Amino acid sequence: MSGMHHMLVHFPLGFWALATLMILVGTLLPGRMAELNHIALLPVLVLSLLAALVAIISGLMVWPLEASTASPLARNHILTALWSLGVFTMLTVLVWRAGSSAFVGASRWVLLLLALIGIAIFATTGTIGGHLVGATTQFSELLKLFGWDVYHTFFVPTWVIGVMVLIGVACAVVGLRGRRTAS
Ligand code: HEM
User: Fold this and answer.
1) Closest Cα to residue 85, out of 18, 155, 17, 12?
2) Residue 51 shares a structural domain with residue 120
3) Do residues 86 and 171 both lie within one domain?
4) Each residue of 100-127: pLDDT tens digit?
5) What is the pLDDT of residues 20-48, one digit of tens each?
6) What domain range includes position 59?
7) Which of 74, 100, 176, 178 could cross-link with 68 by S-S, CB 3.0 to 4.6 Å?
């Protein structure tokens, strides 16, 4: 399954990179070029999610689960793979629900921000994958500058999780209020 995983991971990485580029073009460029990207974005995002599920399943089959979860490097790889899936699932739902108004007004900046967060996380997933097969890159040196060595289990203090939950609740309240005001 190792060779299969190496091959399959190119699909989510490629689709996620393409979706991010399309969001950049759709947000920052005017005219027909932007319109074409708005129309084609949803199918690319849906394909990226399907490809990610296949990559994750194949990844879980490379080593026995006990081995993967015993290694901090592999644990970090699983964590960032699932985060990437989470961010791009959010983007897919937003683009799908908003339809033709996804790039209207402030929502385009939300899409752009999420896409930039997503690209940073999936680049980290690929980088850690490289470490797992002994092919290291300078990207992990950059992560070290931000205070994270990929060989140590990623750790978030409990208070940060608390702040994140509060931000999530605040966003939900703002969203619900906005919907009520609009209707
Ligand atoms: C979207 C999800 C994922 C992506 C994009 C991804 C990406 C990668 C990449 C780029 C590599 C290096 C392959 C190479 O250099 O040819 C790799 C290796 C690896 N990945 Fe993933 N991965 C994903 C999910 C997972 C998951 C969920 C696991 C579960 C444990 C996993 C386990 C592994 C293992 C064990 C290796 C090393 C393979 C070996 O020893 O030959 N991956 N991955």
Assistant:
1) 12
2) yes
3) no
4) 888 998 889 999 999 999 999 999 999 9
5) 999 999 999 988 999 999 999 999 999 99
6) 2-152
7) 74
